[in-house]
Amino acid sequence: MAFLDNSGDIILDAVLTDEGRMRMAKGNFQITHFAFGDDEIDYSLFDATTGSVYMDVTLAQTPVLEAFTNNASSMHSKLMTVTNMSHLYLPILELNEVFAGTSTAKHSSENFVLCVTEDTEDLFSAVTGIINAYTRDDGKYIRVDQGIDNADVPPGSIIDPELNETQYMIDIDNRLGSIISSAGATSARLSFIDDDGIARYYLSAPAAGRFVFDNDIFTASPSTQVISGARGTVLQFRISPSIDLTSNSALFDKIGSTVSVEGTTVKNIDAYVRVTGVTTGYRIDIPVRFIRKV
Amino acid sequence: MAQTFKTLRDSDRTTTRTLLHEMVPITGTIASGTYTDLNIKNYSHGMFQSVYDYPYLSGSANHIFDLTVGYSATSALSASASSQNAKKINIYNEMAQVLVGFDVTGNVRPFDRDGDLSGNTGKINEAIFICFSRLLMKDEIKKGSFSLTVATGGVYSAPEDNLTLTDSGSTTDYRVNSPAGEYGVLYDTRGKRLGLLYYQAGIAVLTASIFGNLSNDAVTTVAGDSDNPLIPVTASNYFSSENGTATPGESSVVHALTGSEISGNCDGFRNRLVTMEFQNTTELNSTIYFCRANHNEFNYSSNPTYLTGSKIRVKGDLADLPPVAYITTIGLYSPDRVLMAVAKLSEPIRKDPTRDFTMRVRLDF
């Protein structure tokens, strides 16, 4: 996409997304909400120290790209309505790799490595970050903590209830896997699959499977906590590989490659799982690597 | 509860209808000459001929219009000896039943020069049909914008005597008694009615008599029809390259209609086409969404760069400074929060508690 001409009047370049067109073809196109996004903005260019009209000059000159038609490519970061205008800190989402030692840590390749068959699992014995996604017998899972990651706001303080996440949404390529509880016993309820095959799950606090719950550790506890300040809720889940991955290697051959993991060559598909807080819109992308024995 | 989505109420959306017009000029050299007929597609059935804007075997060629000719079964030209006699009658009947319709007894009505379907006068029994592709005419041809110039005289290799037909006055004077929508009458500069233009169907129907006095070729002239006969046939008044002789009338449009196939007649017409232009019309139905950001809304951002160590950058160290965010994008969402449409601003707009906005996002359908 090109940049929009910003030499004159402010213009709006509006397009239907591919998902919007698909829903129009299906007859269930409906628009009921709007949101504002600021994907292109780099707020580090904002110089609050000047206290003058020049504090945002560079930022305001940011060129804006034309609209993407892929519904998954836009609106990654949204503007937020918060009643209290005097917040100095906002909560974030952070991957917690230390909570349960090796059970919640990534692999040294910076991915959560998911074995999609039992014989793939047999290639690796208790390697940190390599998860038995097929048999689910290793107690490993992915954990995301919400909170204010700043010691200026002590862990014992309470996050403004307005900013506390009680619901998360997870996006994952439906061809690759689905979301299940950290104990592996409960499947998350699928909300929808978009035109690009991206599945979305909404997970709320009281739902079965204990996907979302309050973080009730109010001391610093650096050995188990990654949020250094006030803590909100915790999201934890596992990923179950799809039948397409477990039954044969066709999808690996189509969209994957081969890679060496712990010295063993395996077929792999690299992807990511996107976790977004429904309340604040804050999100993180979690890298995952599906592997299968060659 | 902090929110990133805002509900659109009924008062936040409205619908509008806009007509968009584009000028479509077609030069005669496109139809005949520039591409040495590589842009002309003939079919084995021989019922019509397609004209492209580039050699049609190229993937970048666009279909611009089709040509065909036909005459009524009651035309004096209709005879079993005439070339493709049945096909020419079939073409005429097909176009007539679609564009003019049927009478109360179920018979196909013939084309009428002034649109008055009653009586037997002023009928177009021999016609040339120009069917514009939807790519060109879009939803309809704009009334009063059509102009067609053809050379009615001269030899085949050097046509002359230009005749211009327009639908002048059709913006306020058009007919609605066609099953195919509205249509106007095509006039020459003398005010003679020489054809019809169906706006929504995108079809021009020209009487073949613009290329010759059909009565000189033993076609019965209808008494009292001031629009017929028109142009005297002379020895040099060739229409088609086929059946061409130097004998007066032997190469006239009559001989082309009877002695040449439909494709030969189409070739003759293209050879005499000087220029043609009109404006098309696209009907845009729009929904406008009024995305209102009140002073106390959308002042924070979930952009990862908005925070450093969970601290809001734009506030520095002062909590009492107002939050600031910048809008570059407006997303329109379905009830299940899937992005249905996206609008981009050409430059970021600052949002803080001292400002409120209403962004009008228009979606055209």
Explain the overall architecture:
Chain A is mainly β. Chain A contains 5 helices and 16 strands. In chain A, the strands form 2 sheets. In chain A, strands 5, 6, 8, 10, 11, 14, 15 and 16 form an 8-stranded mixed sheet that branches. The model of chain A has no long low-confidence stretch (mean pLDDT about 90). Chain B has about 375 residues and is mainly beta. Chain B has 2 domains: about 260 residues, no CATH class; about 70 residues, no CATH class. Chain B has 5 helices and 22 strands. In chain B, the strands form 5 sheets. Chain B has an 8-stranded antiparallel sheet. In chain B, strands 2, 9, 10, 11, 16 and 22 form a 6-stranded antiparallel sheet that branches. The two termini of chain B are about 35 Å apart. At the A-B interface, strand 1, helix 1, strand 2 and strand 3 of A face strand 1, strand 16, strand 17, strand 18 and strand 19 of B. Strand 3 of chain A pairs antiparallel with strand 17 of chain B.
Q: What spatial form of chain A do the alpha-carbon principal axes imply?
A: globular
Q: Which descriptor suits the 3D outline of chain B?
A: elongated
Low-confidence stretches of chain B: 214-224, 229-236
Major protein interface: A-B, 85 and 75 residues
**Cα-atom radius of gyration of chain B:** 30 Å
Strand order of the largest sheet of chain B: 3-4-5-8-15-14-13-12
In total, how many beta strands of chain B? 22
What value does the Rg of chain A take, in angstroms? Answer: 21 Å
**Helix and strand composition category of chain B:** mainly beta
Helix content of chain B: 10-25%
In N-to-C order, the SSE pattern of chain A is EHEHEEEHEEEEEEEEHHEEE
Sheet with the most strands, sense and barrel status of chain B: 8 strands, antiparallel
Pattern of helices and strands of chain B: EEHEEEHEEEHEEEEEEEHHEEEEEEE
What count of helical segments of chain B does DSSP give? 5
State mean pLDDT of chain A (0 to 100 scale): 91
What's the helical proportion of residues of chain A? under 10%
Strand content of chain A: 25-35%
Total number of strands of chain A: 16
Please identify the structural class of chain A as seen in this structure. Answer: mainly beta
- Share of β-strand residues of chain B: 35-45%
- Parts with pLDDT < 50 across at least 5 consecutive residues of chain A: none
